[in-house]
Structures are given as structure tokens and as C-alpha cells.
């Protein structure tokens, strides 16, 4: 059967199915809420003979990333997943994964960072590692989780890129909630990934060599230059892998950003992650009231699509960015602080922060923010908090 099967699945199941369709040689992970069931599902597929892969049980997230790093250096296709404190614990080999230019795809079920103690949804974990050299893609729904695992595999292994990819999705709001997902047949996934393969092994028992020896500064500079250049190429490559995805599967997600009703808009709301679906409805309702507002969904946090965002905001009367994270030291949200660096200087703007610690971002709240945007009921550069009554 070559057509997709339609099922209601959780975001974590969608991530596991997407990872399995990539046919990883090795999987290693350590359980942490809300990621745990991703690896549990994959372990079940291996145990039931549905997936030909090696699963390694490790004692920590640091070990998980170290194990997949070694396997990737030996030429294997690998997968892992984590959240929050687990992502923080693996930071040392996580940083080394990108700077060694080792391709892989990793799912991050986004969660708040402790403290205060919390296990609930937020994007602070992913935002905290955005300077670690990985490609970082944020998705809106469970279908996009599965699809971007496949697209991320092809993107990561492109010989002009060779960088690891994070597919980031909101914990609980996506990881544990069920949505309709079209699950492609394995042969269609194979067709999409045909011609894509991990890079040639850096480690080979028959050809002993030193991996990552002490490096002088003049060579380190070249490493960083090449790394940054590969990240910038990602902005166009993401569109290429998406175009091929549409050819094989019949639907598309676009590139680093998605514009919704932006062309004739006077005002723009920027969003990231699962809040985007609610924001799209809020935009439609505002249009019915005669307010010409558009939505800019930011899919790629690294590399940051500065030129595309600047173009989308050019000529607009005002804009705002909604975040599920904070940018410490800037008194604003993370997406807002990034967009501010490339936005037209004349347009008034403000930062919206909400949805922290698992709280909802409601249709009413986003509609209210859009109304304030259109009416100019804000101070330029201020931060508005979607605070919940206790």
C-alpha cells in the first residue's frame, strides 16, 4: 500500500513514526517528560520487528548524545530526543555535534527550564541552545512534526549542509495531544530520502586517525566561517527539500517562514510553534472586523530568516511578536528580540509573552493583542505579558 494511512496520534507518536521512516541505524535516549514516549514507541517498534535499528539504553542525556555522536562519526544515521533539563545535561556533546559537522535529526519536546520547578510546556529549553550551531525548526502541529523529521533528515545530510537538525514542538500541547496525521508508507519515505545518506565515516577501525585534535586558532576560524556559511545555505536548502517533499507526498510546508494574509496587511503578528493555529483564527476574525492584519509564522529559528522577515514587515504600520519564552537581559520574548534586529526601524512594535509553564494562549488573548496592535494601544518596544490569575 503506497498511499498514506490516516490516524489520530499524539505528537510524540508522530515524532517516533517520522524517525522510524528515516530508518536510523542507532537510537539512544534517556527518558524525560514530556519526551519519554517518543523513545518508548521506537523501542516497541524494534522489539516487535517493525524497525531494524539498534537501541542503546544509557544512563543520562549526556551519554545519549555522546553515543549517537560516535555512531554518526562512524557513518551511521542516528536519532535521539529530549526536553528541558535533559537538553541542558547533553549540552557539551550537543555543541560538539554541530561543530564536528555531523548530520542527524533530533526531536525536542519543548518544556520550561527549572527553576521554579516545572515540567510543563514552554520554549525556553530550545531557545537556550540556539547559539549551539544546530539548525532549529519549530513546528505548529503533529503532521508537521512527522514531516519535518523526514525533511530534516534530507536537509541535514545534504553535502553542502552537514549539520544536525532540531525539530522542536511544544510539550503537552503537541507531544501528548492527538491530531489527525497522514502517515506515509515506508516506500514513499524511501523514495523521498533516496540519494540521501550520512556522510562518509570519520571513524574507521581499518583506518585509525585522531578525531578532533587540538586545533590552532587560524584553523578554528575557518571552521566557524564554513559552519556559518552552511547555516545560511540552509535557508534556500529548506525550500529545496520542501519542494521535493511536495513532489513525493503532495503537500508542502514552505521555507523558513510562512506568510498568511500578509500581502495587503497593515499590521503583522509573528508567532512560533503551536500557538500559530490559534493566531491564524484570530487574524481571520480581525479581518472580519475590518482590521487588515497578517500572520507571519516563523519556522526556522536557526538560521534566523532575517531577510524574509524584514521583507514581510517592510511598509507595515506596526508589528508584534508572540513568544513562549523570554530573552533574559532584553525584557522581551526570544522571537521578538531576534526580529527586532532585522525589522524596519520606523514601524512601532511590541513583545508578547505568554504560555509559560504550560498555560494556554487563548484565542481571546491573541485577538485582544491584535486589536491593541491595530489601535496603537501600546508603547513602542514594550512587553505585554499574558498573565493568568492565580
Contiguous low-pLDDT stretches (5 residues minimum) are none
In the CATH scheme, the class of the largest domain would be Alpha Beta
- Number of DSSP-assigned strands: 15
Would you list the SSEs in sequence order as H and E? Answer: EHEHEHEHHEHEHEEHHEEHEEHEHEHE
Cα Rg? 21 Å
Q: Which geometry do the CA atoms define?
A: globular
Order of the strands making up the biggest sheet: 3-2-4-5-7-6-12
CATH architecture of the largest domain: 3-Layer(aba) Sandwich
Domain count: the total is 2
Fourth-tier CATH superfamily name of the largest domain? Thiamin diphosphate (ThDP)-binding fold, Pyr/PP domains
Essential attributes:
single chain, 390 residues, alpha/beta, Rossmann fold, 7-stranded mixed β-sheet, 6-stranded mixed β-sheet, 13 helices, 15 strands
Concise account of the structure shown:
By secondary structure, this protein is α/β, with parallel strands linked by helices. It is built from 13 helices and 15 strands.
What topology emerges from the helices and strands here?
Elements: E1 5-10, H1 11-21, E2 26-29, H2 36-47, E3 54-57, H3 61-73, E4 78-82, H4 84-89, H5 91-99, E5 105-110, H6 124-128, E6 135-138, H7 142-157, E7 165-170, E8 178-183, H8 186-193, H9 217-249, E9 257-260, E10 267-271, H10 275-288, E11 293-298, E12 300-302, H11 306-313, E13 318-323, H12 334-340, E14 349-353, H13 363-375, E15 383-385
Parallel strand pairs: 2-3, 2-4, 4-5, 5-7, 6-7, 10-11, 10-13, 13-14, 14-15
Antiparallel strand pairs: 1-8, 6-12, 9-11
Helix pairs in contact: 1-2, 1-7, 3-5, 8-9, 10-13
Amino acid at each position: 500500500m503506497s498511499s498514506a494511512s490516516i490516524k489520530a496520534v499524539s505528537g510524540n507518536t508522530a515524532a517516533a513514526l517520522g524517525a522510524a521512516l528515516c530508518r536510523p541505524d542507532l537510537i539512544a535516549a534517556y527518558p524525560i517528560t514530556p519526551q519519554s514516549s517518543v523513545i518508548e514507541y521506537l523501542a516497541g517498534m524494534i522489539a516487535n520487528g517493525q524497525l531494524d535499528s539498534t537501541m542503546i539504553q544509557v544512563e543520562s542525556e549526556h551519554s545519549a548524545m555522546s553515543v549517537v555522536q560516535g555512531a554518526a562519526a562512524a557513518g551511521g544515521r542516528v536519532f535521539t530526543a529530549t526536553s528541558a533539563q535533559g537538553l541542558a545535561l547533553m549540552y557539551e556533546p550537543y555543541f560538539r555535534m554541530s561543530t564536528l559537522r555531523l548530520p542527524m535529526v533530533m526531536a525536542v519536546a519543548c518544556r520550561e527550564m527549572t527553576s521554579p520547578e516545572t515540567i510543563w510546556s514552554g520554549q525556553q529549553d530550545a531557545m537556550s541552545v540556539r547559539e549551539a550551531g544546530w539548525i532549529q525548526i519549530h513546528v505548529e502541529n503533529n503532521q508537521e512534526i512527522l514531516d519535518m523529521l523526514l525533511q530534516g533528515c534530507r536537509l541535514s545530510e545534504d553535502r553542502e549542509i552537514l549539520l544536525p537538525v532540531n525539530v522542536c514542538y511544544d510539550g503537552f500541547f503537541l507531544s501528548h495531544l492527538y491530531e489527525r496525521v497522514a502517515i506515509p508508507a515506508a516506500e514513499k519515505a524511501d523514495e523521498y530520502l533516496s540519494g540521501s545518506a550520512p556522510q562518509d565515516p570519520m571513524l574507521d577501525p581499518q583506518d585509525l586517525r585522531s578525531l578532533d585534535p587540538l586545533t590552532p586558532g587560524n584553523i578554528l576560524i575557518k571552521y566557524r566561517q564554513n559552519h556559518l556559511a552552511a547555516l545560511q545555505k540552509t535557508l534556500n536548502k529548506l525550500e529545496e527539500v520542501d519542494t521535493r517533499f511536495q513532489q513525493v507526498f503532495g503537500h508542502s510546508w514552505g521555507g523558513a517562514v510562512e506568510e498568511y494574509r500578509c500581502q495587503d496587511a497593515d499590521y503583522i503578528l509573528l508567532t512560533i510553534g503551536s500557538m500559530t493555529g490559534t493566531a491564524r483564527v484570530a487574524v481571520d476574525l480581525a479581518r472580519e472586523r475590518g482590521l487588515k492584519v497578517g500572520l507571519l509564522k516563523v519556522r526556522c529559528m536557526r538560521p534566523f530568516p532575517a531577510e524574509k522577515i524584514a521583507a514581510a514587515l517592510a511598509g507595515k504600520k506596526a508589528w508584534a511578536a508572540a513568544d513562549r519564552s523570554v530573552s533574559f537581559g532584553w525584557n522581551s520574548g526570544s522571537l521578538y528580540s531576534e526580529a527586532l534586529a532585522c525589522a524596519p526601524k520606523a514601524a512601532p512594535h511590541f513583545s508578547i509573552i505568554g504560555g509559560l509553564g504550560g498555560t494556554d494562549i487563548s484565542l481571546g488573548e491573541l485577538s485582544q493583542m491584535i486589536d491593541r496592535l491595530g489601535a496603537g494601544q501600546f508603547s513602542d518596544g514594550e512587553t505585554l505579558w499574558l498573565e493568568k490569575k492565580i
